[in-house]
Design goal:
Strand content: 25-35%
Number of domains: 3
Shape: flat
Helix content: 10-25%
CATH architecture of the largest domain: Alpha-Beta Complex
Strand order of the largest sheet: 3-2-4-5-6
Distance between the termini: 29 Å
Bound molecules: zinc ion
Structural class: alpha+beta
Radius of gyration: 23 Å
Length: 301
């Protein structure tokens, strides 16, 4: 692997005093916007790696920024929604210099549509100096599914397969624009009660996995992984100015084919670029010096 430093900064000032990233977080407290217990996944990671403490905001109802059950639409993209939550958190907590927010999304895998993807974002925002860094985790391990059912047998079968009550379930009926939703069902008795009450008025009930973090241990695990990615990015500081998040975010394709040497779509270079001063670093041949001919449009069209 060859590393090459390119074009130094268009800004001269340093973001942090060099080599001092830890002192920016150690023994400080960040406020987290959550009402779903996400501190359980995030706090240990930030404490162990950075010495950063977490408190949970009592002033933000994160459900107003969208819910998985579909009763409240998300106001913006996943990243923007996390940023809006963190911005609100800083605004409502003038005592805090750092805020955290987390946002999850479930969607069909772009290349294998029958698979469900889960992307988790854990975002850190700093007031002084102004700072926004997001950690990501992508997974196809989701337990996110739904079925239309009509009988208690079907309900119990679904509940068994989807690990209820360790994992939460939601019952809902959609009539026109309106949803009737039953959630926070913590026991088999409450699940059956809720089902019978909906079933007395409707033919078919939709049962689905509850994707809220506190009712979905798998999602909680993925949020912890996104927090770990956030720490990785915080500790990856720009060699020119000290701003965090100096990680590979882009690549240039064109790795030569092993047989004909024509450029393929595989990466020739990975590119790191600083979001603060613009400093760039290119990593040549990040995955080897030649592409397997199977990737070549000419040798293997
Ligand atoms: Zn070739
Ligand atoms: Zn920089």
């Amino acid at each position: 692997m060859v590393e090459k430093n390119l074009s130094p900064s268009h800004k001269d000032s340093s973001f942090f005093i060099q080599g001092n990233i830890f002192s920016h977080f150690k023994d400080r407290t960040a406020v987290l916007a959550t009402k779903h217990g996400k501190e359980r996944a995030i706090a240990p990671v930030l404490w162990e790696s950075l010495g950063l403490r977490l408190t949970v905001s009592d002033k933000i109802d994160t459900d107003t920024f969208g819910t998985f059950a579909g009763d409240v639409e998300r106001p913006a993209s996943q990243f923007e929604t996390a940023a809006i939550k963190a911005t609100n958190c800083l605004a409502l907590h003038p005592e805090a210099g750092l805020a955290l927010a987390s946002e999850g999304a479930f969607y069909p895998h772009p290349e294998v549509p029958f698979l469900t993807m889960n992307t988790e974002i854990v975002l850190l925002m700093g007031r002084e100096p102004s700072l926004t860094i997001a950690g990501y985790h992508h997974s196809t391990e989701t337990l996110a599914t739904s079925e239309e059912i009509a009988t208690t047998e079907e309900l119990l079968d679904f509940a068994n397969r989807l690990k209820f009550p360790e994992f939460g379930l939601i019952l809902k009926v959609k009539t026109g624009e309106k949803h009737a939703i039953k959630k926070d069902l913590n026991s088999l008795a409450s699940l059956l009660d809720a089902f019978r009450s909906l079933r007395s008025e409707h033919e078919k009930i939709t049962v689905e996995t509850d994707l809220r973090a506190h009712r979905n241990p798998l999602r909680m695990k993925m949020i912890g992984q996104a927090a770990a990615d956030l720490v990785r990015r915080i500790l990856a500081t720009c060699p020119n100015c000290g701003y965090p998040d100096f990680v590979v975010k882009d690549f240039e394709k064109g790795l030569p084919c092993e047989l004909c040497s024509l450029p393929t779509r595989l990466p020739l270079k990975d590119i790191k670029a600083c979001g603060y001063c613009g400093f760039r670093e290119e990593i040549l041949f990040p995955k080897g010096e030649k592409a397997y001919a199977g990737h070549c449009d000419w040798c293997n069209p």
